[in-house]
Amino acid sequence: MTNGSFTMRLPTPAPSIVSTTDPNPEDDSLVSNDFSTTLGALILCLVILLGVPGNLFIVWSIMARIRRHSVTTFLILNLACADGFLMALTIFFVIYLAKQSWIFGTAMCKGLFYLCNTNMYASIFLITLMSVHRLVAVVFPTRVSLIASPRIAKRVVVGMWVLVFIISIPSLVFRNIRVDEDEMGKPRMVCEPNHTLPRHVRFQYAFETVSGFILPYAIIITSYVLILRRLRQTQFRRKVRSEKLILAIVVTFGLFWFPYHIINMIQVAAQWYPEDSPTREFLDHIWQSSRAVTSALAFISSCANPVLYTFAGKSYIRQNGFAFMARLFEGTSLEQVTKKGRNTNSESNVGLNNVVSIDNGGSGINGNVG
Q1: Cα–Cα distance between 208 and 5 in angstroms, integer?
Q2: Where is the G-protein coupled receptors family 1 profile domain positioned along the sequence (predicted)?
């Protein structure tokens, strides 16, 4: 989940630890907003309670209960690991909001928010890969083992993680600790973005929203449009649970992250107005008062997937107990591909049944990833 100065992004500082006398257009700290910080802390507590055990259960189900790891389960495993790791870090942000002061030092200030940022990119990129994989499975069902083989999937995911850690660097550079004062005049430490120039703000948040939301969602939407067009061209009319599950993941991620990126764009827009402009003051007030809550909401996306999987696999719970999620992913009764020699329509339908059905427990594609 999770950023280009993500979560509890608290308005800006100076090159190192500076005092509140330093003039800055982002001078009001978000931790000074009692309502926003309280609500944000409550949301994050809920996220910890649901997200940590939920994602650990997904990892355990895939690693310990599934013999053959499909491309789909491999992507889900990476997503669960990323989300579970983020959930483990959430306790630091709860303490930050509760104490309204950053007590963990400069290195943790930079490092934790950097890791949150990598989670945001990793989550949306993995979801995008899921959507592209479904596209390949539906449009090229007889070639999916070649185009989207487990070996290729491994290489793509490794490359994705390298890219994620590189493009998250701005959240490491543009963040530092600033000395602030609470309502009683006592000093407190604020871990927040360090934007010394307006163009830094415009670059970081615009880049974050375009690369971490707009472009991936454009690919996802295009993939599903092509999938629907392909399904209409064939005789394949079954309601596919795996398609619905992945679509639910896509929609859920978008709903929880959309407010965060709207606030990003509001902050970027504010930088185009003079500091004494009423419009600038109005826009600054909106993003400053909303940042903590929208960042906390974004965290929810990292604990929502276990809930979605539980609903998708509820029919297996009574029969399989704690192994229900493995049963959901594994594909123990995938339909068999028919022999060669069938016509194109028949072959396409068989391929679609084979690669996207989990109605009978299928996970999405044959082939080990391990």
Answers
A1: 9
A2: 54-309
* DSSP annotation string for 324-356: HHHHHHH-TTPPPPPPS---HHHHHHHHHHHHH
Give the single-character DSSP code of 89. Answer: H
In a domain, 13, yes or no: no
Look up the domain containing 183 and give its range: 30-329
**Total structural domains within the chain:** 1
Q: Is residue 352 part of a domain?
A: no
Whole-structure pTM value: 0.76
Is residue 91 included in any domain, yes or no? Answer: yes
β-pair partners for 180 = 188
- Taking a C-beta distance cutoff of 8 angstroms, is the pair 227, 134 a contact? yes
Q: How is 237-286 classified by DSSP, letter by letter? A: -PPPHHHHHHHHHHHHHHHHHHHHHHHHHHHHHHTTS-TT-HHHHHHHHH
- What's the CATH code of the domain at 192? 1.20.1070.10
Cα dihedral 266/272/278/281 (nearest 10): 50
> pLDDT tens-digit profile of 243-297?
677 778 888 888 888 999 999 999 999 888 888 888 889 998 888 888 878 887 8
